[in-house]
Amino acid sequence: RAGNDRFNVVGIINSYTFDGTGSIPTVQHDGFENGSLPDPSLARLHYNEIGNQFTDEDEITEVKADFEYVPDKGPVDRINFGAYRQEREKSSFQIFGSQCQFCGYGTQAPLDAIDFEAYQASNYFPGLIDTFYTYDGDKMLDYLADQGFPVEPTLQNNRYTINEDITSLYMDFTLGFDLADMPVTVNMGARYSETDIEVAAIQSFISDVIPTSDATLFQNVFGPATNIEQGTSYSNLLPSFNVKLELQDNMILRFAAYDSITRPTMSQLSPATNFNEPRRQNLTASGGNPALKPFQSENWDISYEWYYNDANLFSFAVFSKEVDDFIVTLTGAETYEMSDRSGPDFACTTCTDQTDDELIGSSEVYTVSRPQNGESATVTGFEVGVTHMFENGFGFIANATVVNSDISVGDDTTQTFALEGLGDSQNLIFFYEQENWQARVAFNNREGFLRLVDNGFNGEPVNVETYGQWDISASYDINENFTIFAEGINITEEELVQTGRFANQIYSVEDNGSRYAFGIRGSF
């Protein structure tokens, strides 16, 4: 009960058991079995913060002019040309405050002052603890202020403004002719773009890392604000060539070859570095990269379409992409000078894993995650699809995509590049549409794929296991204005599982169960 943008920790230190032998790891906390709770007098104060969120302001101004010229005669049927101008400014800032005076769970919580009490949730997720303690977060902040340790949010020195200006010119030609009595349509052209980027930021860098009353938690100390200004520019010429061949009235063959670019997001271009809460032997940060280039792709595809009935379609396509400078987020070591370091070395006297003193010397090495341009890669694949309607209102839609890349993450822990998000997929929909009745059963399946090359902590990848979901729906139109409907989502209660490099390294398990809805819709 702390409102928005709050993180207040009042907890009870207890022992637990971890079981990783099953398909889903489980954690059992001592003292929380069968709806029971530990003695509330064991509650202790810990960490507090307000406003650990960023506020973004994004303004885009666009101007474009498109023209078309149709010649009276000649091989060219149509000429399109035009210009485009975009000016975009994005700013991001953070108002944040933290307090670690009571870190380490060494101070007993003022139970009455913060309304610390037991709470039991009804109709809660099965298998999870449904009885726990709560407290009033606003009263917690009042208590801290009364003790002389208020949490006061201030504007942080990790804010930035990025200006991106894009100017483009394009022209394409469309012409048609017959090839052995088969109509042919050709469209070819190019787009030329110039991109100018200016980046400005105010950044305070780490100047010291000091211990707190919690042996596992350190505190960042920041130096004075520094102005950062950077800029870059690049240009691209993107040709395209498209051919449509009508083999028969109901059969079409298409070919396309074109170049494309994907620009980095504005957030990826940020020069600001966000230093995370420092832990023992785990100093981490994240940030952007103003030097990012757009990733470019040389593409071609061939497709065949057969409209074997008014409502029936069979299609097949093969494609290839040659990708350069693909953007991935990687973790690396960055050294920061501790210009304000004055305290003694830190030695954790209560830590069983303590090997050497920490917080020593004139610098600290942080593990920092930043987007970077990767290597080159090739993506190939094919797509096949069928849409078929029967005469009695029944029908189905089926499609599948198979995709492959010449680079993938395997057992090699030194590999730092692969294409994220690539995976085979299949979709199957059975439907019925007759007068006022509609019904649908759908199966959507996505094979396992690489979600992240780098998880941002230790440089290890994150994979998503194969996930298939069944959905059902039905509706009846009472009249033109009202419809009765029923639907079920994920009716087989599939789980979304993410793993590390190997399948037995569980990263996360999402069990959202199934969801059902019944109701009536109206439109006027």
Automatic annotation (TrEMBL):
Primary residence: membrane
Comp. bias intervals (Polar residues): 269-287
InterPro entries linked to this entry: Beta-barrel_TonB (IPR000531), Beta-barrel_TonB_sf (IPR036942), TonB_rcpt_bac (IPR010104)
Compartments in which it is found: Cell outer membrane
SUPFAM superfamilies: Porins
GO cellular component terms attached to this protein's record: cell outer membrane
Alphabetized Pfam families for the sequence: TonB_dep_Rec_b-barrel
PANTHER family from the UniProt entry: PLUG DOMAIN-CONTAINING PROTEIN, TONB-DEPENDENT RECEPTOR-LIKE BETA-BARREL DOMAIN-CONTAINING PROTEIN
Protein's name in the database: TonB-dependent receptor-like beta-barrel domain-containing protein
Organism the protein comes from: marine sediment metagenome
Native organism taxonomy: unclassified sequences, metagenomes, ecological metagenomes
